[in-house]
Amino acid sequence: MAERDQGPDQAVITRRTAMLGAGGIGIFSILASRLYYLQVVKAEDYRVLSDDNRFNFNITIPSRGRILDRHGENLAVNSQDYRVVLIPEQVNDMEATLKRVSDILPLRDKTLKRIKKDIREHAGFVPILIDDHLDWKTFSALNLNIPDLPGVIPEVGEGRAYPDNGIFAHTLGYVGRADPRDVEKDKDPLLRQPTFRIGKTGVEAAADKILRGSAGKLKVEVNALGRIVREWPEPADEAVNGRDVWLTLDAELQRYGAELFEEDSGGLAVIDVMTGELRTLLSMPTFDGNLFVSGLTQDDMDALNNDEKRPQYNKVLSGGYPPASTFKMTVMLAGLESGLIDPSDKTFCTQRLRLGNRTFHCWKPGGHGPMDMRDALKNSCDIYFYDLSQKIGMDNIAAMGRKLGFGTAFDIGISGVKSGIMPDPAWKQARLGNGWRMGDTLNASIGQGFVLATPLQLAVMAGRIANGKKALTPNLLIGQDLGEMADLDINPEHIAFVQDAMWAVCEEPGGTAYRDNGVGIKGLDMAGKTGTGQVRGISMSERQSRLRKNKELPWKLRDHSIFVGYAPHDAPRFAVGCVVEHGGSGSKRAAAIVRAMLQRVLERDGLGAKPDEKAEGEAL
Amino acid sequence: MMNPLSSRAGFAAKLYEVNWLLIALVSLVGLVGVAMIFAATDGVWSRGAQQHLIRLIFAAGVMLVIAMIDMKVWYALAYPAYLGALLLLIGVDVMGASVNGSQRWLDLPFIRFQPSEVMKLAIVLALARYYHDLPKWRVSRVSGLFGAAIIILLPMALILRQPDLGTTLLVAATGIAMVFLAGVNWRVIGGAFLAGTIALPLFFRFGLKEYQRSRILTFLDPSRDPTGASYHITQSKIALGSGGVSGKGFMNGTQRQLEYVPENRTDFIFTVIGEEFGLVGSLMTMGLYISVIGLCIWLSIQCKHMFSRLLVLGLTTTFTLYIFINLGMVMGLAPVVGVPLPLISYGGTVILTVMAGFGLILSAHLHRKNELPRSQY
């Protein structure tokens, strides 16, 4: 029975086994041809893809060059910066990832927006900065969470740091992310790296090409998680680090200048009268450039913008101030060079000069009495210069002003250098559309009215008088091609006369800068000129009753305190220009700063005699 | 002449009669697995290769023991084994540990294993016995078909609940193949095909979990999800394709070194073969499998009884389907359903099941001439 039932089955089952076997062979053939397709026909494509997977070309960012002072002291360096970046193509769920990250490291809405914008604008493999300047605690917390956050990479990068917290901020500028305009102009691939920082202002911007270096291409082998398994350095593709930039500045001297300014606002320039090298270029108050690197908060920004002393404004290069009485040397030289004036002729100062229906005043109540040219500068008599300017005319004065550097924007290699204003009749006609009047000349003769100069220009003016032969040009970057300095083209005798009068201002009893330091600084034989830049109109009634003292005025209305000077008198080495905004009478605040600076810069160059403690104390 | 296959024959003589060619081929496949797991784990012996070898040796022992046991015993155990496997599947449903979101494991005090693996053997035993006992004329009748359908559908439903689409399909396909081999007539086959065509969309819509649907959709349109499910396939194809004709050399596969191919010591182990040994190595591996399958079919033809024959063919079908589904998946021809490459992929219970299956095949061959009882319905 079993035999009967099983018999026929065997035939069916064998037949059907053969069928299934044939089907199996068919499927194996399909699989084999698929393998042939993948491993022979398409092999080359997949080999390329597999190399794509294996290797990424990462742009390596070179170390930015340092900025050093003339002695090699660091002004701008690269410091270790803990930061966290994101590689979008390795992130599974962007929203969730960013949320996880912000649990550890709170991200502001603005930052999130910026991150998302970056992600949209860059290829998926480009690292996007989430945040930098992390503290160690946050950084290690992030590192702990890395296994759960694919694509989020904490790294130690280089960040720009300014060790002096701002004393050099205006000159050095700061670095920041390249904006679309930078990218448009400059095709360097570095600019498209979200972690790259480009010089935005100051030396950082001006010397960016030198400091930046060039991008490296690093072949890296990555696994599917985006972790770098191995690096394949190829010498030809290595990043070339930026070169250092040396400045003519003297960090120590600059710091000293900042100390002297205390809380005051203004600009200070110290220049070598032989070479034009700037030893100090200070604008006060300063701001911390480090804040700009890490990204300003709104509060920081508000604090900077609302400060009436305008910390961000580069006063030494851009600030236009009435040079006031420091302009009188220009008028003197214009008079002497015109040949129309005998310096020994005297003008009688009664404190008043009538011109048409206007009355011009000298600063000294009761007047100076009879004044020749030397005495007029020593005592800063306004009446003498009103008189002198009427005789020689504005065109002569303006021409001399330009010879001394007024109205010129010097090229010191960085931006922000302003030209100030050296007005003349043609300028007024072009600018304001009305004619030059004698009153304008009189105002200009004492450095008021339309005349505006920067502290740098004041230093250059003093430096040119001190040098006497060459039209000194300021410079800041060591190695900058300066060319030959032009001749000053002023009669040396006239220069000597003015130098002597400037010496009298500082070193002769009765000079406007003499009384301020009592006996002067022992061993420092300097020449200079005071200036009091008036920022308000003085009404007739106020003048008739009593001039208000500066202390009684709101800060904004107080006079600018101005001083220019050079030393040593007999063989000038350094010149200084200084404006202390609303610092009160010129000879007090600015003169003290200039004296101290001159003494210190000579000392640092081994030229100054050591003063005794008492004298220095009084000078300050 | 003494019958060497009688149960009274000496144990050594019986051992000698075992089909050693099959054992040699199976062991060779297993050793390929050891080598490839070794490569996939960056040459760290302890990260899988060693374990795989130990499991192979243990499973080979189990295989030999099973081979020695008379076919009568397996015939007697067919239904109890099936019922036991069903109970285990229900047990998983009630108290199974969840791994990767699906309940497939049963945590017993000493071992953790997948009852669905046991079911792969049990269903073949059950169906083989069912058709062995079933009079020939009832095979295509409603009553005959109904019994087979129950045997197939019960475990399918339970495994699908876990959810494990790959194993469900494997069990279903094996069952259908056995019904086909048993000789259902072409009218029934045609009708079943028609019914399947209608039922498939409904099953797709209602019978599958969301992620299973998504995998199938992704397989049909890889651009749906370039980083998710189809990422596996894309990376796997890159690994295979970049191997070219001759491969990158043993231990030199860059894709697997870089962890581009996920699960590359388990389900995607074939990518390591393809990348490191190229088309030559891939075809040789396939050739090895074909030899095993062909030998099994040859052994089945020598069997005297329906039970032994169907048992061998059913087990061979399961083994073959494993290979087809896995290779199809790795080459981007089938959806990612998590089916290992038998004997080569790392993973304990699968080795044991497959080797136990070969044990049954060897036993069927060894006892091919013996009489078997037949239950009457």
Please characterize this protein's 3D structure.
The complex is a heterodimer of chains A (620) and B (377). Chain A is α+β, with helices and mostly antiparallel strands and 620 residues long. Helix content of chain A is 40%, strand content 17%. Chain A has 24 helices and 19 strands. Mean pLDDT of chain A is 82; it is low at 1-8 and 610-620. Chain B contains 14 helices and 3 strands. In chain B, strands 1-2-3 form a 3-stranded antiparallel β-sheet. The radius of gyration of chain B is 21 Å and the shape is globular. The relative contact order of chain B is 0.16. The interface between A and B is large, with 41 and 50 residues.
Look at the helices and sheets of chain B and give the structural class: mainly alpha
Largest interface: A-B, 41 and 50 residues
Strand order of the largest sheet of chain B: 1-2-3
Major β-sheet profile of chain A: 5 strands, mixed
Low-confidence stretches of chain A: 1-8, 610-620
Series of H and E elements of chain B: HHHHEEEHHHHHHHHHH
Give the overall form of chain A.
elongated
Query: What is the number of E strands of chain B?
Result: 3
Sheet-strand content of chain A, in percent, reads 15-25%
What is the residue-averaged pLDDT of chain B? 83
Could you say which overall geometry of chain B the principal axes of the C-alpha atoms support?
Answer: globular
User: Quick one: how many beta strands of chain A?
Assistant: 19
Total number of helices of chain A: 24
Report the C-alpha radius of gyration of chain B, rounded: 21 Å
> Helical element count of chain B?
14
Are there runs of chain B of 5+ residues with pLDDT below 50, and where?
A: 1-5
SS content category of chain A: alpha+beta
Biggest beta sheet attributes of chain B: 3 strands, antiparallel
